[in-house]
């Protein structure tokens, strides 16, 4: 065989994706290429949108069971980003953005605030954090007076006792701007178990935004390190937020911009609409400095319209999400591998980064999405069930789970009806998503770094040391793919064993 024939193996992407089939990640497989660098030489740094750069190509989806402040802060601390959902009042969404941005280190406690005149009747109040904060009005943004510690509360004979009678007066706090090592050093030096972080320069009376315990320090130290955090020019965490395309979303957008949001996603299942195009034009005119991501799209025609309207990024995927029923309900959508490849091919010619949204359930899917042309992957179910996802853990039999639901599920639509479907109350609502539960996955601070290491190994096998290199190899037809038959997919999975334990890291 001469050299030319040796390389002529498998199909170039352009040919594979022009056969009239809708392929998804599991349908296709990359042929390995040539390794001439170590795994650690792979850089996954990327762009979310024209002007927003990330060290880690992961995005937390704007869903109310995935991304609020805790997820957004954790993702930013990993060099990734979270998009805060809009299934709430605009002022609530803006304060979630502000809260995430006010952190320097990720946090894991849902802080509880009470006023001195209240009583604590149930031990459940201590479930989400090791102490309860006492502020003048009982709200987070009011003057801090003291704390209630669980052991002090346990000792109370009469649980109706007013908090002011037994709270501990408060003496120590640190500025929220302190780095992880600053806080760790302070706790160790002063032999403290816990310290609150407050806005401003750490003075008493400032608003509490975070709580760090010795256990948090140990836990975070045990996690693998992953590149640089995502910081904006203001020195704060990069945080995104979603909006809809109704008239009322213009006011929502104003709240978000005032809160310092770094990028905005127009959240719709079918982005190629007059409503979205008008919103893009309005937002670009009103806030020319703000990056705007349009979508969702799955075809080059849809993408072209949004690019012409002025988007800085595109979100790709229709019906591919784990909780999505859109393809079944509306008969529209596309296999996710085809959608990402087609849209990214056009978007790249216009310098517009693409987010591959939905259908990610393992690191291999991330490698495929990024190599097929996406600049980032957006994930819902992969991040749901983590410590940082909103909601509390419950038990289903012996499984510890958290709720995960589609934003088009009846439950989510009902919750958001005031905000999203304002004026639509008389219309019949049709669900395009389901409500489910996912297993406890622990902290994203642990499993995202491991997942990214696996992605780097995939890139090494492809001979691509960066996302740009993968895209170049694909478009120059050096990287080849094949469609996997059902039997090949079966063979590619675990098979033929009586039993096994699957432990990924
Ligand atoms: N990626 C996917 O495959 C899917 C995602 N979803 C998620 O579910 C949520 C809801 O999605 P959608 O129902 O597509 O939301 P949407 O807000 O885009 O659309 C809801 C309805 O409102 C209409 N609408 C929007 N703006 C309007 C305006 N200014 N005037 C009049 N009518 C207007 C739309 O045409 C549509 O009928 C989103 O979070 C979305 O991401 C839902 C289905 C599929
Ligand atoms: O058809 C749908 N009905 C819904 O109710 C729904 N809610 C979210 N999404 C989309 O699914 C993505 C998350 O998908 P994964 O769980 O697979 O990561 C998300 O990022 C969305 O694009 C929906 N799609
Ligand atoms: K689906």
Automatic annotation (TrEMBL):
Protein activity control: Mycophenolic acid (MPA) is a non-competitive inhibitor that prevents formation of the closed enzyme conformation by binding to the same site as the amobile flap. In contrast, mizoribine monophosphate (MZP) is a competitive inhibitor that induces the closed conformation. MPA is a potent inhibitor of mammalian IMPDHs but a poor inhibitor of the bacterial enzymes. MZP is a more potent inhibitor of bacterial IMPDH.
EC number: 1.1.1.205
Location (main, coarse): cytoplasm
Pathway: Purine metabolism; XMP biosynthesis via de novo pathway; XMP from IMP: step 1/1
One Gene Ontology cellular component annotation held by this UniProt entry: cytoplasm
Binding-site residues for NAD(+), renumbered to this chain: 267-269, 317-319
Gene Ontology process terms (BP): GMP biosynthetic process; GTP biosynthetic process
Main enzyme class: oxidoreductase
Keyword NAD: yes
Residues annotated as binding K(+): 319, 321, 324
Swiss-Prot/TrEMBL cofactor(s): K(+)
UniProt function note: Catalyzes the conversion of inosine 5'-phosphate (IMP) to xanthosine 5'-phosphate (XMP), the first committed and rate-limiting step in the de novo synthesis of guanine nucleotides, and therefore plays an important role in the regulation of cell growth.
Quaternary assembly: Homotetramer.
Name this protein carries in UniProt: Inosine-5'-monophosphate dehydrogenase
Record organism: Dorcoceras hygrometricum
